[in-house]
Amino acid sequence: MKTIMKIYFRKHILLHGLVLCAALGVALPGMAQPQGSGPSPFATSGGSGQALPVVEVYKSAQCGCCKLWAEHLQKNGFEVILHNVDDVPAARKKLGMPNKFGSCHTAKAGQYLVEGHVPAADIKRLLKERPKAIGLAVPAMPPGSPGMESDHPVPYETLLVGMDGKAKVFARHAATAK
Hints:
alpha+beta, two-stranded antiparallel sheet
């Protein structure tokens, strides 16, 4: 009888633990921390003291350049979470970035969206200046942008996408070989 009671007790405790975890996962999603993060959802920029939000990237599972862009952000002090999605344009639309600025991935950094291979320095500037805008975009995939390193880079622009969906040049980048 003691053996049966021990087995029942172990299974009962395990079942209660699983039910509690499931309930917390459903009831308290805002309290969940991104994978690999510490006690805060913000990283600090090396030396500047500026709090950087976690960057969540929505990309295709097959896209390698998105991973390279994420590594660029990590090297520049951002914590990055990658989300593989089946339909990047649908994710872009759901997040609120106009499709005309589309690239291979859309990211969320704090209150802003970041479309495509935007340099980390531009994102940091956006977060510091805090303009009223949807976010930043580097449309298409220009060779030489972060994650798109190339022996044949081209000059490109980072656009500031306004709340009205119109864009203006936020930064210009010269062609620099890898």
